[in-house]
Design a protein that fits this description.
This protein folds into three domains: 83 residues, no CATH class; 192 residues, TIM Barrel, CATH 3.20.20; 130 residues, Beta Barrel (Lyase, Ornithine Decarboxylase, Chain A, domain 1). The protein is 23% helix and 27% strand. It is α/β, with parallel strands linked by helices. Strands 10, 11, 21, 22, 23, 24, 25, 26 and 27 form a nine-stranded mixed sheet that branches. Strands 12, 13, 14, 15, 16, 17, 18, 19 and 20 form a nine-stranded parallel sheet that branches. A five-stranded parallel sheet has the order 1-3-5-7-9, with no helix packed on it.
Amino acid sequence: MAIVATLSEQKAAGGLSFVARSSDINATVIDDTVVQKNCSLHIRGNLLASLTIEPGAKVVVEGSVEGRIVNKGGRLLVNNKAHASCITAVGPAEDEARGILKIDLTAVVSNWERLAKFSTVECAAGLEGNAYGCGIEPIAGALARNGCKTFFVSDIPEARRVRAVAQSATIYVLGGLYSGPRDAFADVNACPVIYSPIEMAEWDLFTGSHGWSGGCALHVDTGKNRRGLSVEEAVAFAPSFRNHGVTLLISRLDGLDKAAKASNDRQIGLFNELRRLYKGVSASMADAAAIFVEPKAHCDLIRADTALYGVNPASGANNPMLPVIELYARIVQIIRLSAGETIADGNGWTAKRPTRLALVSAGYADGYPRCEGGYDKKLHAIVGGRPCPVVGQPSMDLLAIDVTEIPDPAVVRHGNLVTLIGPQTSIDELAVASKSTGCEVLNHLGDRFHRIYHVT
């Protein structure tokens, strides 16, 4: 391995430094650097400049990370995580964006570890829907580096993105056989989830003609009209499951409240009967909610889904998950209303007293949900550390916040950031106020935010 103290010899026009071979640096890096494909860089010092990691490249930083990181499909390991601030930033530039969305990768990993500790079996991660809107590459990369071996995605494009950052992972494609061309599963080494005898017949035809033995999962509907094979169809496949290459048997409970206990017991009983017929095949039934309340459904593999991202898996109880998301938007205007005045797009909201409103740069185009009747006194944003009511309805680009009770005008100034989601205003609170779900709120957060992936 070449030992270099500086990258000056590899500088190109524009001041960039390119790493074109495996290199060590025993110093602080102050030059913007690109680590090219399949190369490695070991920095025994701090990283103060921007760093771009190309596909297949690997970077290890022993010190702190203070520069901007752009990971295009490589690997980054920071051994001084207590001092690492930004792992990567994507989307529009911060000064051009509607707001800032911060995603705490340490919290994601901690939530996965917390869920895994509730069981003695393997814990997989759900990354479908672009990791529930949070971004597949940073999430999958962080989880894979910390021991997660199995991932669930929606389709083949998502499987490719996981494979780029988790080369040895097992990947199941929940979209089924129709989420991509048949040979794409072999190209990316991903397993389709099969939902019907027709899909199984088509998959058998492909694997037989191409000699591919990567395996597939079988999704069985043990409850009320969910997508999947019927129990009877699954029983019929059982004698020849090895010929079909089945590597995982999947089902899901219909409900987890007290009223669903009898039906849950029935589903678990049916699934256990199938497990006996599919002896030697791993089985998975429990998502994050079932991990906590239904140990009998743990089987061989539990599936961590929205709980990874801080959404409460235990409805009606304290959230056992760490918060992952923080969302900030800027104040773009201050307006004053007299009692009885209304605001545009407020859908009937009327000031009941002399009111000062801060209009901030986020709306339903950014995924901030609308609520019938508005949010007055139901939801708060944090302005200068103080909770302030969100009023009326969001327009496409704007949200109104009542800042009448804040006496210091310096706190409510044009350009100041307010917190829309954070420790004091959770995703679940926003979901309740909008009569939505945490999963929907999370998935709808748009691409107009400057996204920062960081560790704590």
